[in-house]
Batch of 2 targets.
Target 1
Amino acid sequence: MLTITGGNWKGRKVEVTPRLITRYTPQFARKALFDIIDVEGLRVLDLFSGSGIIAFEALSRSATNAVCIDSSRVSCNTIKKNALKLGCQEKLRILCADFRRAIPKLEKSGERFDFIFADPPFGENYIPELLEVLERNAGIFSENACLVIESSKKERELVKKYSGDASCLYDTREYGNVFLSFLKVVK
């Protein structure tokens, strides 16, 4: 179980994905993230969602709505179960699809997001491709969107290297073996 760190649901428990080896954003890193980013009134996109904890943290802090993307059916079912438990199904959409297909669909539908959080599996080399897909589909970003990528120390360098023309790395925070890279989207 994971604990929501702030907002209306502070202290509420969220189930983790059963039978999957999943690395969750540590509680202290989640709290720090939402102390830095005020998500009240924002539209949130949670990529590689796992249990949906980032989306639930954002909704707990009065984000307008959230979309979770994960390619695992087990993860998507866990997110749905957690949303029902918290009573937030009307503010949460779950796309059970690979990010390479889901992001272009979101752009094509005209959806825009103010805060995008991506937590790809460490060591799987997703970051260059993720940044490329986001750059090709930059229409999903609102005017002043913020993109946060969680990575390992080694992969933090990939964020710097591949952030490209569509985004500007402006801050990096370290929480144990987890790094959060904050990027401002350039439109």
Note: The first strand starts at residue 2 and ends at 3.
Target 2
Amino acid sequence: MLLHAPRSRYNLSKDESMALKSLKNTRTITVKPCDKGGGIAILDTNLYMDNMENMLQCPVFYKSIPGHPEIKLKRSIKTTNLEALEAGVICKKEFDFLTPVHTGIPIIYGLPKIHKDASNPPMRPIVSTIGSAIEPLSKYVDTFLKPMVALLPSYIRDTGHFISKIEGLKYRPDGEYLVTMDLESLYTNIPQQEAIDVVALYLNRRGDDPALSFILKCLETVLFNNYFDFNGKMYHQIKGVSMGAACAPSVANLYVGAFEDKFIYN
């Protein structure tokens, strides 16, 4: 049936196509998706680079390092995974997935927050770990965390889920209002060890699980070894959970869930 499907028509003129190629190849502008709203931002490259560099100079969150400890990190990961394999915690297929041979170095980029400042937007840092040594570990950890996130009392899956919950509210007392709030820079402000302790708390609810210590070890590796490249320089994120890691949303949700348990529901 695909053989007889109508061919899609190219909807750009020759001049428009050439203009797009020219924009793509120019180094004076940087094109990035906006942080919110689904739009595209076209930035002066010098402005983008300066904003990113200024963000990475904050000693609370980032530290400049001479190089990426990739060989040492891969050796440590392989040793941990081999111990788990020999203990029967993971199978050979899982070992192969968690121990990639060929890996790359993560990179960081910024999503411009034009809703806060359109002319000189701050950046939301995203660390792309695709193809890195920690990417499989992050995905593995997230398979255990996602189901627990869905059990949080305040869990909202998506817009449709939110609408269905609102429609279920048949009665609202006078004087009560629906409000929302935002946690500023949540991901970068989560203390790494506290995040691990919170995840351990939730994992312990699963009962006696021989994989528990291995899952936490994988999470420690992901959070404590967030190294990345920007413009040819290497950095280490020393505080927070980097957006871009597969398990980052689940870790952040569980961290806030533990806060809600302590200060709201109790």
Note: Residues 2 and 91 are 40 Å apart (CA to CA).
